[in-house]
Structures are given as structure tokens and as C-alpha cells.
Amino acid sequence: MWYINPDSGGQAAVAKNCSTGDYAITTQVLPQDASQQRIQLARRLAAHDSGIDLMSIDPPYTAEFANAGFLAPIPQDLQDAIKNGGGDSDGPPQAFGGAVDAATWDGKLVAFPFWSNTQVLWYRKSFVQKAGLDMSKPVTWDQIIDAAAKNGGRIGVQANKYEGYVVWINALISGAGGSIIEDAEKGVDAKITISSDAGTAAAGIIRKLAHSPAAPPDLSVSNEGTAGSTFGSPAGSFLVNWTYIFHNYDQTEPDVAKDIGYTMYPQTVQGKDARPPYGGIGIGVSKYSGHVDEAMKAAACITNADNQGVNAEMTGNMPSSAAGYAYPALAKIYPADLLKLFQDSVEAAAPRSVTPYWSDISSAIQSTWHPPISVDASTPKDSASFIDDVLHGKRLL
């Protein structure tokens, strides 16, 4: 049994591809929300539930599951193939460096990278023409907020009190050269670094958008879906969102689909390279499965280059390897420059900190940075104190 995150059928198709005469891979869909996915899996794994063989794991929770001993060790030959070789249909592919990092804990690869998502800056070509912006050059958050505010546009972001908001905060801080924590391997004693010049820069951008006419009315409850709706509306201007957006409007709003442009994620600080969000899914094998050896073979098949391509073709969730991007159907679905942008963005992306305590850190950030309109120069310092207290059991979430 493979517990999968919700999608439009890609994982079910891959499961069928990888079923053999010795075993059939069946799928069970997890909740829509990533935090609820984590809770369901963690509870069952903590109970040593043998009904889970394979699981799709959101990168922020990989270290937590590995540190708790929930994941079966990946044989060294498979680890070596994922990191250094492969890329054909007979074995696991070489994965992007960021995908390997997100699937690594305590120096060992603990999950099979399956797909690697990234956000880019989507824009309405008609709007930027009206605003007079040159999108062939890097743009900053300040520039797009100012352009939208002056020209009646609204910017789509993810700022509800959920993981997607922390994804935005992390990208802003990373784009200013900072990080939320350092020395993650120290666990609860990791260095909290959100209160920094980079944290202040991130808070300034969020505050500027929240108090700007460019903010959508639903900013404080916005997620990937509502941000997409904002972008597709008459006031649509800019949107930061995942790769699937390119074909999101093909059937429902063809005029919007024709008006979509794309470029690298906005810079936090002018002249400093952007660090787009990194997302994706890794495939973990449960330590408590009654079929660990078979599950390892299945995971290797699920994550080979061809099946990464099959999943990307059906879902818009892009491969975790360059070999996966070579899947022929993708070149028919996406322009060559967009496929290159996706890969460049994954390589430039800033994963969330790999720590067993990410859930607590993320929840603490959500508590102190939400709603966006409340964010000010003191927010990074307040959140640093709260994160530290939560990790050391001095305060409750």
C-alpha cells in the first residue's frame, strides 16, 4: 500500500506501471493539507502500523520521520545510484542536488526523490506592458508591488495561517541571504537566525504588500488556489505559485492562459539572486512494513526517470532529476524556456530547514507572522524568541 498526496492521477498511474507479477501497488489518498498528511502518517507509524509500505512525504517532515526511526534504511547501492548515477528506466535517477538535500538526514539519504516543485513569478503580459516593466531582467518584490499598486493590479501570494505562508517567508529570508535556523543537526539547540537583517527585509516586504492596494482582499486567508483565482481575475497582475499554474486556465479561462508570462522568482534585495521556494515529494519506505524489500524495489521504480515524467505529464508536478525532464511528452506540453526556468529555479531554490522539529518551528512562525497586516520590524525578533521557547518547552503553540 502506497499512501499518496492528492493529485490528478499521476501516482495511481505510476503505481500501475510499477506493479509486477510478484506484487501489486495499491494507493490510498492522504488529506489535502500537508500538516494533516503528516499527522495521519506519524500517528500510524508511531503505532507500528504494518499497513503502510510506501508513503509520499512532504520534504519538511522527512527529517522528523527519519529521526523517529519510522523509515527503513535505503540500501547503499540505491543511495549511490540516486546521488551519482542512474537516470534510465531500470533504476533510480540521479536527482537534483536540492532534491537530495531535502531527502537527506544525518548524512544518509532516507527517502527517494520523486518530484521537485518550485515557484516562479507568473505575470499577465498585458499588465506588465501597461505598467512598462521589462520582464527580461530580474525584478524585485518592491518593483512588482509598486507596479501593481500604481496600475490597479492585485498580487497573488500564499499568506493564510498554514505551511504555504512559511514557504513564502522562508523564500524571502533566503533571498536576502539569511535563514530561519542554522545548525539544524543540534535539534532543539539549533541557532535561531530569523531575527536578522534578512528577516527584517522579509518582514518589510510582507508589510508593504499587506498595506498596499496591490494586496488582494483575501490576503490573510490566501492559498495556492485563491491566489490563482486572483491572478485569473480582471485585476490579475503577478502571482508566485507552483509549476502546475501554466495550464491551470486552459479550459476555464483561455484568454488568461494566452496572457501568461513567466520569469524567475522576485528578488528580496535588488541585485541579490532570488531563492525560490522548494517543494516536492519523496517516497519513504516504512520500517514497519511487512514487505520492506519489495517496497524498496517499488520505490526505485516509482522514482525512475520515466515515471517522474509520467507523473509530471499528468499532474504538472515536475521531475526531481534532469533525466526526468527529458521525458518526451513534457517538451510537447511546456515551452523549452519554461522547462529551463523550472530547472534553473529548482537549482536556485531554498529548501526549508531539514530538522525533526520543523513542524514546531513552522507553527511558531505562523503564530507570530500572521495575519500579514500585523507584521512589522519587531516580528522577526518576536518570532525568534517564540520559536526558542517552543523548542525548549517554555511556551505552548
UniProtKB/TrEMBL annotation:
GO terms for biological process: maltodextrin transmembrane transport; maltose transport. Gene3D superfamilies: Periplasmic binding protein-like II. Keywords: Signal, Sugar transport, Transport. GO terms for cellular component: ATP-binding cassette (ABC) transporter complex, substrate-binding subunit-containing. One of its GO terms (molecular function) is maltose binding. The keyword Transport applies. Pfam families: SBP_bac_1. InterPro entries: SBP. Belongs to the bacterial solute-binding protein 1 family. This is Multiple sugar transport system substrate-binding protein. It comes from Nocardioides terrae. The lineage of its organism: Bacteria, Bacillati, Actinomycetota, Actinomycetes, Propionibacteriales.
